[in-house]
Amino acid sequence: MSTIQESVSTFIYREARFLDDREWDNWLTCYAEDATYWMPAWDDDDKITEDPQSEISLIYYPDRGGLEDRVFRIKTERSGASTPEPRTTHMISNIEILADAPAGIELRYNFHTLNHRYKVTDHFFGTVFLTLRRSGDTFLIAAKKIVLKNDYIRQVIDVYHV
How many other CB atoms sit within 10 Å of the CB of residue 37? Predict the structure, then answer.
């Protein structure tokens, strides 16, 4: 495994661990201030939406401020959808670097998240497209696009599900 592949993988696994361990403040530090976080929806023709500004999305935050607000609501129990907080396990696979340039690293990976709440376990799976920006000896997420493959779900989807 190349050094960059190993560094990228370690970073992605750490972000997932922060979600699983409910380390919300540490999770936020993985994101650049101007990071976009987007989960497009599937349209009636079974294609994902292309523009979060003009089409429906399952989740869309144009910058880290939206993620910070979401974390605030989770931490202060102002989110009925997150109370009680679910237990999650994120499994990451097929990490593939698509482009490595000085401006950033483009990559994709697959995920499968198990979510347990109210004595029920749900599964979420899909593909993530990520843009990482170098920041010292680590990375910051500059853009995250999550393609949820099982979009027919029985509950509200949230950042810790993917």
Answer: 22
